[in-house]
Amino acid sequence: MNILLTGFEPFDKEAINPSWEAVRALDGWRCEGALVHARRISCVFGAALRELDAAIDELQPVLAIGVGQAGGRSEITPERVAINVDDGRICDNAGCQPIDQPVVAGAPAAYFSTLPIKAMVRALRAAGIPASVSNSAGTFVCNHLFFGLMHRIATRPAPALRGGFIHIPCLPEQAASLPGMPSMSLDTVVDALRIAVATALTVHDDVRETGGQIS
After folding, report:
1. Rg value, the chain, Cα
2. Cα(99)–Cα(102) distance, rounded to whole angstroms?
3. Does 96 qualify as catalytic in the annotation?
4. pTM of whole model > 0.85?
5. Which of 49, 54, 135, 150 is packed most tightly, with the most Cβ within 10 A?
């Protein structure tokens, strides 16, 4: 069995992207009999989905999880829902800035993650790692990839494949030049992804407990 973890290249003039640093640390790790494969994805609308499709075609994974940086967040945040809209606050790495465009024309407005996101949050908190369910993956390339993944799962069914997306905080070396920016060490993020992957492989019916937010 194969597991696909994706992380993004740096963007917005950053020198590193913690999502790629974290997932590449897990490349070759075995969990519950499955082998993790890390893939670096372009921070470019359209190209990101082509690269994701190629990786899924190659690996035929049982689990596919996208990981992305969420500056300003202080926790590991499994995403609940991907929405069918691209609305770039900034340009992607190819200089494109779609505004109010669908990720996939004619597709549903949204897809839910098929990961046990609340069980993942529970397991992370039990390990002493700050975590919560997120109800918005934004409208940049992270959500673009997340929606594309879930659309593929919905329209090209592979019986064993489940997927979703996890946002992670910035690294301390990034936050050092951004006063007030929350951060989390790379070692902690890697440990968190190990827990998230193991939970996703072993929990098939998510726990029922509050994960909602007021705003």
Report:
1. 16
2. 9
3. no
4. yes
5. 150
